[in-house]
Amino acid sequence: MRLAVELAGIRFKNPLIAASGTFGYGVEYEGLIELERLGGIVAKGLYLRPRDGAPVPRIVETPAGLLNAIGLQGIGIDAFLREVLPRMRRHDTALLVNVCGDTVDEYAEVARRCDGQPGIAGLEINISCPNVTQGGMAFGGDARMTHQVVAAVRAATRLPVIPKLSPNVSDITVFARAAEEAGADALSCINTLLGLAIDVESRRPRLGFGTGGLSGPAIRPIAVRMAWQAARAVKIPVIGVGGIASASDVLEFLIAGCPAVQIGTASFVDPGIFERVLADLSAWLEGHGLDDVNAVVGTLEYPGLGRPCPQER
Amino acid sequence: MGYDRAMPANRLAPLVSRESLGGSFFVLTFAHEETAREARPGQFVMIKAGTSAEPPLRRPFSILSVEPASSTFSLFVKAIGPGSRALCALEPGEVAQCLGPLGRPFTTPVPGSEPLLVAGGYGVAPFRFMADEMQREGARGLLFYGGRTAADLPLLPRLSGPALTVLPATEDGSLGTCGRVTVPLENHLDRLSGSRPKLFACGPEAMMHAVARLAERRSLPAEVSLDPWMGCGVGTCLGCVVRVQSAGDERPKLRCACTEGPVFDASRVVWPGDDCSSARRAAAACEEAPRAVSGSEAAGARG
What we know:
The complex is a heterodimer of chains A (about 325) and B (about 300).
Chain A: E1 5-7, E2 10-12, E3 16-18, E4 40-42, E5 59-62, E6 65-68, H1 77-88, E7 94-99, H2 104-114, E8 122-126, H3 137-140, H4 143-156, E9 161-165, H5 172-181, E10 187-189, E11 193-195, E12 198-199, E13 204-205, E14 212-215, H6 220-233, E15 238-241, H7 247-256, E16 260-263, H8 265-269, H9 273-287
Parallel strand pairs in A: 3-4, 3-16, 4-7, 7-8, 8-9, 9-10, 10-15, 15-16
Antiparallel strand pairs in A: 1-2, 5-6, 6-14, 11-14, 12-13
Helix pairs in contact in A: 2-4, 4-5, 5-6, 6-7, 7-9
Chain B: E1 9-20, E2 25-31, H1 33-38, E3 44-49, E4 59-67, E5 72-78, H2 82-88, E6 95-102, E7 116-120, H3 125-137, E8 141-147, E9 164-170, E10 177-178, H4 182-191, E11 199-202, H5 205-217, E12 222-225, E13 241-244, E14 253-256, E15 263-265, H6 278-283, H7 295-301
Parallel strand pairs in B: 7-8, 7-11, 8-9, 9-10, 11-12
Antiparallel strand pairs in B: 1-2, 1-6, 2-5, 3-4, 3-6, 4-5, 12-15, 13-14
């Protein structure tokens, strides 16, 4: 069974990638699961400097979902390169760094510091975090800013550049095209949906930050729709993210046109999910007479649209 | 992390037995070899009934006791929310998803140290486990066990033994001393002369804060087990952070209660709204001083 996929010049040994913000820096899971079994890992978002993030409470459960406002707490890119990367290099899996910034220059500088670092396979550009007051979604909610950030990062590094798009926009294809034009090698679709949960007794938001980002199975149909729309709008590959908890969920994104996917919230629930989903995915492919996962990518038969041409991969 | 601890194991744990203690309280016993073998008092498991999507997250539960010989451990669970109700509805043979043992345990009291344990409601769970360990070590102590009413203390008959003398307190006076658990605790401390016992506390945040203040006032060492909302249990979601002043740090830092706690030195914790602790004074330098612990509001919805 061939499970390996290649996109943006990165080889992933299987299409299952740990999503940023839900897998720490990877090292937290050493010994608990076999990191080598993952197709890839996107490390938690990193700014130039360490950040404390948002006030507690930071997470609340919602129906089939999780609303969070962590606020990109992190150790900063230099501590990551110095303390975490040498440990992560020992694991044979594609490691991507999720790049954050309050300004365009900060994004570019974080990217520059990652450039040429052995063990970093690519950069995911976080222009879609809903839980920060500067940067984040402010860049991902304005197509010109999206273009500007992606172009600045593109110019700062030779690493593959993968912007993570926000679903909190009216037409994601505009942002997908802007990122592609600015030199993105691939896209991650989608980040969390902006939400608000209210404690009716105190009449206050249940999260310390106020609003938060919704993830988990609740958002999957929205994520599949947006990843599909983005994949149709651009030539670069789209990594599907949003609410995946089973092999069937993975297949929805693959069929919609994503050669790889990210699993996030579900790994909080079960850190062993990657192994389980991979086994189920292999079994499904085998049961359908397929020996290569790439064969299902982009095979959606959408009424009135027929089968899209397989994208260049 | 500062000390050795066993790697947690993530596997399905069949329910071995379910015992109702009346009301919505249960003792649930699960088969989970690693937790049974390696867990220490104060550690917890992340657990969820079955494999259904709802509620989404596992829940943290402090370990009540372990039985290494039968590879089982027990939890003391109050069925109050969707997660705990689903756990208490499991039939023997049905499975839970379980990750454990997790977290930093309490320091084990040494013989002769006469520790004072302070528990509120179902926060008593780790002290049953600690009593077993103290008994093995030949240590003895007092447990102050408080609740609103007698029905909140269903574990009472199982706590007294060679290692522990239990002093219950209820706010309505239906059992033991009338008042909060800190009332008999203060009375006891007032009568002590010379000895400086260590305090161990687990319960509602307000109770632990009160114990921390009391310990600071009387210059007694204290460990508290904090209970903020946890998403993952392994330090990646950063949902359960608390502000803690560590030795050598210029100012309090955010620490994950799941990996660097849940047990903390009480004098290091920056409590919400507390202006008098040394940790809080140091924290005044922070530009941003959010509340340290999220447990209180979340408590009604969790479980």
